[in-house]
Amino acid sequence: MDADKKQSVETSSLSDGYDVENLHPDHPDDYLRENERWATEHDLNTMLRVGDRLPYAAIFVVLTEFCERFTYYGITGPFQNYIQNGYKVPGARPGAIAGGQHMATGLGNFFQFWCYLTPILGAVIADQWLGKFKTILIFCIIYIIGDLILTLTSIPGSIRHGGALPGLIIAMITIGLGTGGIKSNVSPMVAEQYGRYRPFVRKLKNGKEVLVDRELTVQSIFNWFYWAVNVGGLSAIATTELESHVDFWAAYLLPTLMFVICVVVFYFGRSKYVINKPSGSIAIKAYRIMALGFRNYRKARAENRQILDEDGKKIGWMEYAKPSLSVDGGSVDWDDRFVDELRTSLRACKIFLCYPVFWLCYGQMSNNMVSQSGQMNTGSVPNDIMQNIDPLCIIILVPIFDKLIYPGFRRCGLELRPVTRITCGFLVAALAMAYAAIIQHVIYTTGPYYDAAGGDGFNNISAGIQVPGYILIAIAEIFASITGLEYAYKRAPEKMKSIVMSMFLLTNAGGSILAFCFNSISANPHLVENFAIVSGLMGAFTILFVVCFRHYDKREGQEAETQMLKESK
User: Fold this and answer.
1) For residues 481 and 352, is the Cβ–Cβ distance under 8 A?
2) Which of 470, 440, 468 is nearest to 453 (CA)?
């Protein structure tokens, strides 16, 4: 327990008559401050629930993620033009490699796939050996190396001598590796900075008492975390302008310098962080539990001696790995609780199965929708600046959802639980792609270039008609992406936060694999079919998601109530 928390516990114990030894059984450093008391069962049933304030340590981690996303979106913003178009071609869009739209979209999908595959490595390293803080710090250095490679190979001399493409590929691999070590650990780490677990009542300045709910606090933390991500995402506005008016080396130098600031901020905040030690070979232990459970289950079924639970139902196959059952008589290095935690993690991961199609929709924003805007009149601004409408909308909408929309539903007695929010996000994503298909049809039926626009010139239609599509994508992200991060953190056991988070991030890599399947129609004159099929696929998976997981909200609501009642006693 750190000094501030210890002092808070001692103060609250003296003023409220609370015995320190009766603190949270799993988190004995839980504490009370002035004008706070532990919640009773009556409080849980009658009081308005609110989220707590964001801890200072979390702000440092959020600033780190802001800088990292500033760098990521700053370098990826110009990618489509950098790869697709030729260098210094008179009257054409900015470019460097002249690879065409197929290569640009393919490499963009590869980079996204790689960036969301590597978090598994980052999670294993953090959970088993180094812990989150050291893992993030080391992978930040790898990230900077990739940034430098990209910047140096985008100078005019390198581009003219053919160094841009190999430099880009090496930079993509290096940056993607760095991203993986950061992404899987930074979001669990930001939530870990909030160290209060037991529900408590706080008296406000106006004398009113409110119930501070950890679940709502974590939801709010991820809302603001995602808000910071998208503030960082606005860097693409600056880098696409630099790409257009200076050159690509300047566009990539800016985010590289920003990332150096990221590492400095993160390092100097180390004394304020709640840093959990690595817990050992979790992934290997999980594999052994599943293997033993399945082996013992098959043996018990073959010998017709399956075990029943208290309700007379057959227990699940993983239960057979519990030491208390001693099915095979051997000794193991885990307890019953760890088996239950692993089962909870696997159940949480099931809900991620429909996410690859959502990320397929999201990925259209950074490749095919950029090319779509290149087929329209963008005035004096670069075509790839249009994608920044999405983070702008998120910056505006996240506070509205966090402070008005979600609390408004709670005041009406309607709690928008995870499955409901994710379903809304999937549905809105399908509508966004349907809208993009309509826009593409309008482009193809408008002259003077019709379905050949983009290379030699644009059609007489304003790119402003893309704006509603980006707004829909932003709303879909708030419902589905933020909720996915929150769900991955809340449903994962303490020892497996990074692993479960990496499994959620892996679904983004799955979206990139799906995008490769669409590569043959990711160019004129097939973009209407591309957007329409993606929209239909998302709509179908939304229905599938509801059918498979509609009962999760009710079950988890009951579990949350039971847990809060348990902790209030």
Assistant:
1) no
2) 440
Q: How far apart are CA 172 and CA 177, in angstroms?
A: 8
How far is the first Cα of the chain from the last one, in angstroms, to the nearest whole number?
23
User: Which residues, 6 or more positions from 376, have their beta carbon under 8 angstroms from its beta carbon?
Assistant: 383, 443, 453, 458, 459, 461, 462, 463, 465, 466
How far apart are alpha carbons 155 and 490 in whole angstroms? 45
Q: Judging by DSSP bridges, how do beta strands 36-38 and 200-203 pair with one another?
A: antiparallel
Q: What is the pLDDT of residues 136-170, one digit of tens each?
A: 999 999 999 999 999 999 999 999 999 999 999 99
> In the block, which residue shows the tokens 């841009």?
164
CA gap 159, 549 in Å, rounded: 50
What is this structure's pTM? 0.78
Condensed to tens digits (0 to 9), the pLDDT of residues 499-515 reads: 788 888 889 989 989 98
CB atoms within 10 A of CB 337: 10
Q: Using an 8 Å Cβ cutoff, are 435 and 503 in contact?
A: no
Between CA 351 and CA 488 the distance in angstroms is 10
Query: Which position has the token pair 């939304």?
Result: 542
CA 98, 99, 102, 108 torsion-angle sign: negative
C-alpha of 291 from chain center? 30
